[in-house]
Amino acid sequence: MPDDIHEEQKPPETDEGPQPPTGPADRIAGRAEERIPEEAEQHEEERVPQAAVQSDVAAQPEQVAAPAVLHAIGPAGEEVRRVAPAERKRMNRRELLKLVPVLALGAFAIPKLREPLLNDGLHLSDWASGKLFGRARLAQTFRDGDVVPFEKFPYNFYDVVDPGVDLERWTLTVEGLVKHPGEYKLSQIQALPKVTQNTRHVCVEGWDVIGNFGGTRASDFLRAIGANTSARFLEAECADGYYESIDMEAMLHPQTLFCYEMYGKPLDRGHGAPLRLQMPTKIGYKQAKYLDTIRVTNVLQADKRGYWEDQGYSWYGGL
Q: To pair with 204 at 20 to 30 A between CA atoms, which of 17, 54, 245, 267?
């Protein structure tokens, strides 16, 4: 079991190639406690200059022609609109997109197409969410006055509210693409800079709540253990049998925490003691509690992408 966490350091410029990082844990223990500002800067919406819009419109005037249509009466007396070839050629992408809901409804009416269509839709949603995600895009943070009282923060659990973790002997097992695998005590994780933030927790069941969370940035811990941050995923296994996997980009987000405090006090058993993930950029089921093992990898285990994801939920789970 490693006695300390080794941070990555820049190797000296020699002909021998890069050297492995070394450094005692107490070097990071004295870092000052950090706090994310209560009011996150709001990103301004991108605006297209009006002049550019007018210029573009002027350069490409829309040509509107009289519709060349033939009308007839259907079997129930309804009017039938037939589009002549001349008008059909003018149908653009926007018009075709209007047909998507109709096509989707038709597909859902055919049982054999329902599941493939849903799966394809989830994959498309995950892909699009990943493309739009960025580490510079922060989730909203809130004033202390917006935080709900601790007793009103719901307990939500997968199997049991308390899996009976031995808090005195607990360690976090680190595996996979890391330079320093092994067992890490909570005190080693707490030796890294602490971050507190007031953020919104959103549950897939339809409720959300603003809470106060404290812990170590996941990015700080991953770099300290020499994780390959160019790997694709982090897998998490929990003391209650729950399991989850998260994209590395989300793990490196500055608001993703290995959380060990709520409301200035150690996590209680119902909220995932002694360590959980806290990710305001993700839906609640991605934020695994009672962490037992984490693994950095490029390949997810078969049929173990996530407890709820393996039952059809979105894998990316972004907000």
A: 267
In what helix (H) or strand (E) does residue 260 lie, and over which residues does it extend?
strand 257-262
Q: pLDDT of 230-253, one tens digit each?
A: 999 999 999 999 999 999 999 999
The Cα–Cα gap between 27 and 33 comes to 14
- For residue 254, give both structure tokens: 């500055």
Nearest CA among 249, 245, 213 for reference residue 231: 249
CA distance 292 to 286: 15
Half-sphere exposure of 160 (CA within 13 A, CB side): 9
Distance CA 277, CA 245 (A): 11
Interval 79-113: pLDDT, tens: 444 444 454 444 444 444 444 555 455 555 556 55
Task: Name the pTM for this structure.
Answer: 0.63
Residues 194/214, Cβ–Cβ less than 8 Å: yes
Structure token pair of residue 10: 């820049």
CATH number of 140-311: 3.90.420.10
Q: What is the pLDDT of residues 161-199, one digit of tens each?
A: 899 999 999 999 999 999 999 999 999 999 999 999 999
Q: N- to C-terminal Cα distance for the chain? A: 37
Per-domain residue ranges for the chain? 140-311
Q: Please name the residues in contact with 1: beta carbons below 8 A apart, sequence gap of 6 or more.
A: 171, 182, 183, 184
